[in-house]
Amino acid sequence: MKFADKITVVTGAASGIGRATAEAFAAEGATVCVADIARESGEAVAAALRERGAKAAFHHVDMTDAASIKAFADAVLARYGRVDILVNAAGWGKTMPFVESDDAFWEKVISLNFVGPMRLTRALLPQMLERKAGRIVNVSSDAGRVGSLGETVYSGAKAGLIGFTKGLAREGARFNVTVNCVCPGPTDTPLLSAVPEKIRDAFVKAIPMRRFGRPAEIAEAVLYFASPNAEYVTGQVLSVSGGLTMVG
Q1: Which residues are part of the catalytic machinery?
Q2: Assuming Cys at both sites, which of 11, 35, 212, 227 could form a disulfide with 90, CB separation 3.0 to 4.6 Å?
Q3: How do 55-60 and 177-184 pair as beta strands?
Q4: Do residues 86 and 108 touch, judged by C-beta distance below 8 A?
Q5: pTM above 0.85?
Q6: Which domains does the chain have, with CATH numbers?
């Protein structure tokens, strides 16, 4: 199995892309830390993975809260001694005109999509650098690459995550720690289901493949960056969007 004996942390793993990613790693032999703020659904995901014979445990974390992130990181390192793979997949946004948003909304979006992943990475990175081994995959968004109508703050936060990925990749390279970024286009997740139907229809018409992405398809891109096949790949941004954003 490709990830046998690899300790893997996946945030946002209770649903959507995070869940599909946790399932994909578990199927390839990884020990998966199912991390999410949603305790009930996160526990259910971890239990389902264990029923399939995988090694998985739920860990509660609020990615908007510094103390919660520190406690989570400390608990994982105390339990497993190391983290081989970190996937920052937790994310959230809401479609609205920028002029209708306020400070509280900005802070939540930026904390969850940008600052939270930075904090968790900061907590888990030192042991990767010390061991000279580690894989970090950030799940950003094509909104961060090209902007998205009605998602201005979300686009800014996800763009920040892309820049963070590239900067950290330069720092981690000489320690054999790779840092890469997957940018999904519109994907069939609970987050997308909250988008107004009119906007979802416009998305489908704009996507050359004429359908939304599936969470499992995003997960495959994450697994590639974490796999031995990508040992010489770092600082890269991969769009998985059905051809929606064909830009450099």
Answers
A1: 154
A2: 11
A3: unpaired
A4: no
A5: yes
A6: 7-237 (3.40.50.720)
